[in-house]
Specification:
The chain has 143 residues and is of the alpha+beta class. The strands form three sheets. The chain has a three-stranded antiparallel β-sheet with strand order 1-8-2. Strands 4-3-7 form a three-stranded antiparallel β-sheet, with helices on one face. The longest helix is centred in the middle third of the chain and has 16 residues. The protein is globular. Bound molecules: zinc ion. Zinc ion binds next to loops.
């Protein structure tokens, strides 16, 4: 049985909200997602917040190419490159800040990568499992 996961990350990849801000974010998120598990996660370093099985492609910043990474569409080298990227970020065996792209061989920063299905790099993540989203929540955030 498959499950869906809704992930929300800050636009600023290095941003980690204070504990009070995290509690507020969880409370607001709970209004949007009234049922099921939700959680806020803080990572020690940048984390690859991927789209799981829905990951389709990486967009190369220097050349603008869309590098497909799925078995249906992507070449074997592109799939290997993506798998290595994911594993390098997850394993943290070395500081991962620069990558060589598979399309044009450019060296790009981890934080400049963009993804065809929503994904990103972040130190903070708010997520919900099998969210049944309420879209008409009105929230007044503290100043
Ligand atoms: Zn490229």
């Amino acid at each position: 049985m498959s499950m869906s996961v809704l992930k929300i990350i800050p636009a600023d990849q290095e941003y980690v909200p204070s504990p009070e801000q995290q509690a507020t974010a969880v409370a607001v998120f709970r209004e949007m997602v009234p049922y099921g598990e939700i959680e806020a996660t803080v990572y020690e370093d940048l984390e690859f917040i991927d789209a799981g099985q829905y990951s389709e492609a990486v967009l190369c910043p220097p050349c603008g190419k869309r590098v497909a990474v799925t078995p249906f569409e992507g070449s074997d080298p592109a799939q290997d490159w993506y798998r290595n990227l994911d594993q390098a970020i997850t394993a943290r065996t070395t500081p991962v800040r620069q990558f060589q792209t598979t399309c044009c061989g450019a060296s790009v920063s981890l934080t400049s990568l963009q993804f065809d299905m929503p994904a990103g790099i972040a130190r903070f993540e708010l997520w919900a499992v099998d969210p049944d989203i309420v879209t008409d929540v009105k929230v007044a955030l503290p100043p």
